[in-house]
Each structure stands twice: as C-alpha cells, then as structure tokens.
Amino acid sequence: EKEEEKKDEL
Amino acid sequence: VLLLKIHATKNCSGVSLKTQELYAIVFVTRYLDLLFSFISLYNTIMKLIFIGSSACIIWYIRFHRVVSQTYDREQDTFRVIFLILPCLLLGIFINHEFTITEILWTFSIYLEAVAILPQLVLLQRTKNVDTLTGNYVFLLGGYRALYLLNWIYRFLTEPGYRQWIVWISGTIQTAIYCDFFYYYFQSWRRNEKLSLPS
After folding, report:
1. HEC string of chain A?
2. Do residue A7 and residue B96 have CB atoms under 8 angstroms apart?
3. How many CB atoms neighbour CB B186 within 10 A?
C-alpha cells in the first residue's frame, strides 16, 4: 500500500 | 523578523549567511510544486514569502554596501557540505517515490531539520546576541514546534493522515532547538542579554 502524502504543509 | 531587523538596523552581525543559504535551498527544492500544483492561496503566498524573504536576506548580507560590512565572515565557518551531502544521500535512499521532484522534496525535509545548526554555532560564538536575532531563532524554532501539535491534531481528526518522514525530521528539528530554548527563557526570566555557553 502506497503511503499517500498530501503536501499541503509548508 | 530577520529581514526587518537587517533592513532597519543595517546590521547583520550574529546572523549566519550559511543558515540563510541552506533555507533558500530548502525552500526552492521543496516548493517546486508551485509550478504544477495548487493547494490554496494562503499556501502559495507563504511559499513565495519564504523564498522571497530568504533571497532578500542573502542579498542584503552578500551585496548591500553597509550590511555586508557587518557580516561575521570569520565566525560563520560551518562546513555546510557536511549537512547537504548526507541529506541528499538520505533523500535518494529514503523517499516515497524515486522521482526527481520527490527526491528533492524529501531532501528539503531532511535539510530543513539541520539548517539551523550554522546559526546556532554562530550564536554560541557571539558573546552578546542581539535581542532581535535571538527572537528570530526563537520564533523559527517555535514555529516548527507548533507543527508537532498540528500533526497530533491532524492525526486524531483526519483518517489516514500520516507522514513518517516529515514527523521524524520535524521532531529532530525541534529537538535541536531545546538547548537554545532553555537559555533563551533563562535570559528572558533574568532580564539579561542572551548568551549561549561555549
């Protein structure tokens, strides 16, 4: 399972 | 804070150019996604502010006629290659996806964790740390420390939210500030100028 990262942090 | 201080006082003594350049590398490699993804107006503006303000600070220290004279060139000698190279290797080997942008993004996460080190070493070498410079380091560390709370909150409220690389790096980054925080609060409590023991 691929770890989905939301790159919404600075 | 740092840009205002340098602009207003025309003085950058105690400020590490090395740390500022590391931050510029961090911001540019991380915010490449400005070109191909949009998250929010706030997110975009903050990214531009981070890149712009660090570029401005670097310009002041390197090229401003008056400010560049006050740079502690002989004290700011941290060998940044010893930070950049390991972070690059770490980024190449420990990442989520073997693509250029993902490796650079991961590299920026690792590099940010240690980017403050040249500044902390310079502060230690500076006898009387300028109040504004001390406040800048405190705010920078505090900003990252608040992320820890944010991550805990998001973990508890957002199903599936987890990001181990960011969490571990961010925790190390905050830990690096612990010693500084201790002396910062002590000097504040005693109403004395900040100075770090050598």
Report:
1. CCCCCCCCCC
2. no
3. 11
Instruction: Count Cα atoms within 13 angstroms, Cβ side, for B126.
Output: 24
Q: How far is CA B105 from CA B27, B50, B194, in A?
A: 9, 15, 35
B87-145 pLDDT tens trace: 999 999 999 999 999 999 999 999 999 999 999 999 999 988 999 999 999 999 999 99
Q: B170: which chain A residues are within 8 Å (Cβ-Cβ)?
A: none
Residue A1 has what pLDDT? 42
Per-residue pLDDT tens for B76-88? Answer: 999 999 999 999 9
Query: ipTM of the predicted structure?
Result: 0.81
If you ran DSSP here, which 8-state letter would residue B70 be given?
G
Contact B160 A5 (CB under 8 A): no
* Nearest partner of B16 among B113, B141, B131, B119, judged by Cα: B119
Q: What percent of chain B has pLDDT over 90?
A: 96
DSSP code of residue B34: G
Instruction: Name, in order, each residue with C-beta under 8 angstroms of B12's C-beta and a sequence gap of 6 or more.
Output: B6, B60, B61, B67, B68, B70, B71
Residue among A2, A3, A7 minimizing CB distance to B33: A7
